[in-house]
Every structure is written in C-alpha cells, then in structure tokens.
Amino acid sequence: MAATSRHEYEMKMKCKKAATKTTDPVELLRLKCLERGASGIKGLGRTFRIMDDDGNKKLDYREFEKGIYDYGLDLEPEEIKAMFQKFDTDRSGTLDFDEFLKALRPPMNKARKSIILKAFHKLDKSGDGVITTEDLKGTYNANQHPKFRNGEWTEEKVFLSFLSNFDSPDDPDGKVTREEFINYYSGVSASIDSDAYFDLMMRSAWKLG
Ligand code: CA
C-alpha cells in the first residue's frame, strides 16, 4: 500500500543530496518535502490547509513563510522568498493553493497518474470524491489486521487507522480527498524509479484489474 521502507530510505537520501545541489527554488522545496518521506508533500499541503482559516484557498507571502516554518522545513528566508516568487507566476502576490501543490508534486507520467486515480475511484465507493470509513465497508478487509483479529479494535478503528496513512498525524479527520490521495502517492511514486514496479505495486495493493 505505502512506499516500502527501503525505497523510502533511498529516496530520502537521494533527495537530501540533490537538495544541496539544485538551484531551482521549486525543486528545492519539493526535495525538502521528500526528504521527510513519501508523505512529505501531502504533509505540507495539509499544513497549508489548516492555516487557511478563511478557506479562500489562497496563500499570501506571510502565510506561505509561516507554513514552511510550521511544517518544520529548514530553509533560509531568501530561499523561501525565491520559492514564492517562482510559484507566483502571475505576480499577484498570492498563490492558488491547489495550483501550488500541483506544481510542487514530483512530475508523474500519465500511466502513473491514471493508476493512482483508478485506485482512488475503487476506494471511493460512494463516488463523492472523498474516501471515508463508509466507503471502506465491504471493500477493505479488516480481517487482515491483527488488532481486529484479537478483538482489540473495531472494524471502524481499523478503517480510521488506514485512512490516517493519508492524513496529517496532527489532524486526522478520517476523510481522504482525491487531492490528498494524489499528493500522497506522488511521494510514493517519487520513491520508485521503475514504472513497471509502480504499476505492479498499485495493482497488487488495490487488486486493480
Ligand atoms: Ca466517498
């Protein structure tokens, strides 16, 4: 389901090294997120979402800077300024949140994107664009979980624990949107070089035809 720990470790090391060399501010932010693991970009997105109090899905420079620090990324003020300017292509002084995350995701080819969406659609049984515990009933097998088998956890608890893989650890809401799912898997995708292996992993994890 997730990145294997070996792949993830190798990716973290690779990103750490690349981050010291890149001169592109967008690439630097991407690498800094991925240094934290496959869920790094998803995590940054989550931090910004929590900050967006008025829900207008826009970030000004102050919010952007605060989000970077809140997320704990180790960056210089000049680097953050350069990133903001690079993302703010129309020089409006604000970033559109979704556009920003899209630009930040490691580039994925069509085949990878389509298999990720296939998995999402399979899990989002109700088709409302959000995966909840309701969707998982009858799709996700709780019997495989040792804590369910020994009676410690309810099925609901197993589902919530599964959904929290895609959520922020500080703010799990038990809901996984399409964007969160893609953000998560873009990180996993970055940790896997081979297209064929990525495809195989997704198909076997989600039993996709
Ligand atoms: Ca749903």
Chain-averaged pLDDT? 87
Give the strand line-up of the largest sheet: 1-2
How many structurally independent domains? 2
- The overall strand count is 4
Order of helices and strands: HHHEHHEHHEHHHEHH
So what's the overall shape? Answer: globular
Q: Could you say which small molecules are bound to this protein?
A: calcium ion
Distance between the termini: 16 Å
Q: Report the uncertain regions.
A: none
Write a short abstract of this structure.
This protein has 209 residues and is mainly alpha-helical. The protein has 12 helices and 4 strands. Helix 2 (25-34) crosses helix 3 and helix 3 runs antiparallel to helix 11.
Describe this structure in words.
The chain is mainly alpha-helical. It folds into two domains: 5-104, EF-hand (Recoverin, domain 1); 110-206, Recoverin, domain 1 (Orthogonal Bundle), CATH 1.10.238. It is built from twelve helices and four strands. The strands form two sheets. A two-stranded antiparallel sheet has the order 1-2. Strands 3-4 form a two-stranded antiparallel ribbon. It is globular. The mean pLDDT is 87.
